[in-house]
Amino acid sequence: MKCQLADAAATEQLGARLADSVTPAVVHLMGDLGAGKTTLARGFIHALGYTGKVRSPTYTLVEPYACERCPVFHLDLYRLADAEELEWLGLRDMLAEPALLLVEWPERGNGVLPPADLTIYMQYSGEGREARLVPASEAGKQLLKGLESA
Predict the structure, then answer these.
(1) Distance, CA of 122 to CA of 29 (rounded, Å)
(2) How much is the pTM?
(3) For the chain, which domains are there?
(4) Taking the CA of residue 67 as centre, how many other CA atoms within 13 Å lie in the half-sphere pointing to its CB?
């Protein structure tokens, strides 16, 4: 499935629509710097009921959010030196309970990070962005149901 995103507001709205059908899952967010991965995550997290500021986890590597409908862990692995560092970040604890993991730069966690239920490829498209959403499990297909109803 492909979505054209004219601006940051449309990118946040896509995240919010995905949250309509939230289920515990691992979502990989792929794309170049500035492609809209964090903006999409912000829309997702706010739609799940979090009212505070959604920070980019670029320097902290992980930001947890206690959302009403589902705990969320937003990870940015861009600065990860070795996939094994995910153990130090508490990945095992994050996966111990049903939660939603939104993972930017997931390729840096290869071999340790669980496979994606849904992969979202973000890329520049003219003045806006394009998102390509590829489910890889039932949980990934469930997340897309929020887009079907819109």
Answers:
(1) 7
(2) 0.91
(3) 2-114+124-131 (3.40.50.300)
(4) 28
